[in-house]
Amino acid sequence: MIDFPIHTALGVTFFSLYFLSMLGLALVILLENRNPLKTIPWIIVLLTLPGIGLVFYFFFGQDNRRRRIISRRTYRRIMRPLSAGGPRQDKVNVPPAYRPLMRMLNRNGRTPLLYGSHIDIYTSGQEKFTAFLEALRSARHHIHLQYYIIADDEIGRCVRQVLIERARAGVEVRVLYDDVGSWSVPHRFFDAMRNAGIEAHPFLRVVFPLFTSKVNYRNHRKVAIIDGRIGFMGGMNIADRYLRGVSWGVWRDTHFRIEGKGVHGLQSSFLIDWYVVTRQLIKGKDYYPDEKFYDDNLMQIFSGGPTGRWRILLQAFIFCITNAKRYLYIQTPYFLPTEGLTQALQTAALGGVDVRLMLPERSDTRSAHLASHSYLDDMLRAGVKVYFYRAGFLHSKLLVSDDEIACIGSANFDFRSFEHNFEINAFVYHRPFAESLRRMYMDDLRSCVPVRAYDWARRPFHLRLIESFLRLFSPLL
After folding, report:
1. Is 325 domain-assigned?
2. Is 397 among the catalytic positions?
């Protein structure tokens, strides 16, 4: 009889159990029926990189699509006021080509049409924060803020002081901020709000950012609601750089001020997130006051995220691209499209649609910027017109098509916005609004340089190699 040392037996037992657990986890990933392009790499990582692969999967690989963060009953209670006083769905003036999109958003996200809003467009931080601070100071009942970044800098402290003043005057002030986006902000910044009676909470709090699966799922929304009558949404956080720009130029962004029924869509999105974080159900007429009709536009405000059965925001973008007939103009700071988006853009361009893609020439995120470049060869070969914005950093997120529909909000054209982030966008069905955004886009073209396919293909080999390597990490950038 052969005697094995105890430590050898323990080692064999440990590695056997570890291997079985890795095999079981690989089986779980397989049964999730994901895209094979995602499933196979994760299985290979788990089986070839024991330990490290498990850590990476725990941080970045888990699929939350089947996770429910709010009950259907609570969701319906929060969303119910949006349907009151709205237009009949069979009497609205939605362009025929986009009625299936309207129905899809309403069916999957319970986002009814919101009629008659007034929308102001801001393309600079100075415009946005002037109107924003004025609106905050006018608050009489409540202020609801939700931002990815609220910085402890000059504009951040200015906003905080106004919030404190309104709270002391008896206004209800509620603030949500992303825990990773605002991770560098000292606790005392938000403690000063709480000490003044402001309810301030982090979204998906991460105690140890390097040791939690929550770090990959961030709330990227930028929303403000004042008294249920005035709302703000778009691409700007609360930080000085949106006012002062970057070292190489201006910070070009797009933000929107909304009055009217559209504000109720922003309110419901905020109150859902507030319930998820605090388990407090906020409701009542004061949060959805009666509004007059300012215009004849129609909008649907949709909150996309990594939970729920469908990637509705991604589906909606693909729908808009594939239904474009004359033109499709896109602005985005980061261009890391899914395979479906890539095929849709190429198909539209090859079919004769004037597809234009505007990106920053320089970026605040070097890795995402270089990875974006790896996608441009195929875009240019298909006939997509690509432009680099040179006057500063282009952070605007915009899609406008055929003078009939526009998509505005917080989502970038990348994996993170469509797969991992909690985003909020509005689809506006209104010719004058779409025309104004098209004119704005054409004005921005004056600050751009076109990218020529021949010149782009001749860039240095080492640069193309780096871009292709970083492209492998597109879902994480």
Report:
1. yes
2. yes
pLDDT at 471: 81
Catalytic residue among 142, 144, 222, 369: 222
Active site residue: 402, 403, 414, 444, which one? 402
Q: Which of 395, 414, 430, 444 is catalytic?
A: 395
Selection from 220, 228, 424, 227 nearest residue 316 by Cα = 424
From 144, 220, 255, 261, active-site residue: 220
Reference 149, options 113, 178, 128, 115; nearest CA is 178
Q: Give the global pTM.
A: 0.84
**187-230 pLDDT, tens digit each:** 999 999 999 999 999 987 776 544 444 556 788 999 999 999 99
Residue 302: what residue type? F
Question: For residue 203, what are the domain limits?
Answer: 72-95+115-295
pLDDT tens readout for residues 43-75? 555 556 555 555 555 555 555 555 555 555 555
Inter-CA distances, 282 with 75, 142, 174, 194, 199, Å: 12, 12, 11, 19, 13
Is pLDDT at 161 greater than 70 in this prediction?
A: yes
Q: What is the rounded CA–CA span in Å between residue 415 and residue 432?
A: 31
How many domains does the structure of the chain reveal? 3
Q: Is 398 in contact with 255 (CB distance < 8 Å)? A: no
The owner of tokens 């950038």 is 477
- Co-location of 340 and 402 in the same domain: yes
Mean pLDDT within 286-315? 85
Whether 325 is a known active-site residue: answer no
Distance of CA 81 to the CA centre of its chain: 24
| 395 a catalytic residue | yes
Domain check: are 323 and 277 in the same one?
no
Give the residue with greater pLDDT, 119 vs 369: 119
Letter string b/e over residues 264-281, b meaning 16 or more CB atoms within 10 A of that residue's CB: bbbbbbbbbbbbbbeeee
324 and 345 belong to one structural domain: yes
Q: Of 128, 178, 179, 227, which is the active-site residue? A: 227
> In the structure, what pLDDT confidence band is assigned to residue 153 with cuts at 50, 70 and 90?
very high
Task: Indicate whether 288 and 316 sit together in one domain.
Answer: no
Residues 461 and 432 occupy one common structural domain: yes
Mind giving me the DSSP string for 123-160? Answer: -SHHHHHHHHHHHHHT-SSEEEEEES-B-SSHHHHHHH
Same domain, 254 and 374: no
